[in-house]
Amino acid sequence: MVVREIRKNIHYVGAIDWDLRLFDQLIPLPDGTSYNAYLIQGRTKTALIDTVDPRQKHVLLSNLEELGIQTIDYVVANHAEHDHSGAIPAILDHYPKAQVVTNEKCKTMLIDSLLVPEARFKTIKDGGKLSLGGKTLEFIFAPWVHWPETMLTYLPEDHILFSCDFLGSHIASSNLYAGKNPDVLRAAKRYYAEIMMPFRPMIKKHLEKLAKLNIELIAPSHGLLYDHPDFILDAYRDWTSDTVKNEVVIPYTSMWGSTKAMVDYLVSALIKRGITAKPFQLSVTDIGELAMALVDAATVVLGSPTVLTGPHPLVAYAAILANALRPKIRFASVIGSYGWGGKMVDQLASMIPNLKVEILPPVIIKGYPKEKDFEALDKLADTIQEKHGTLGS
Ligand code: FEO
Question: Do 260 and 117 belong to one domain?
Answer without folding.
Answer: no
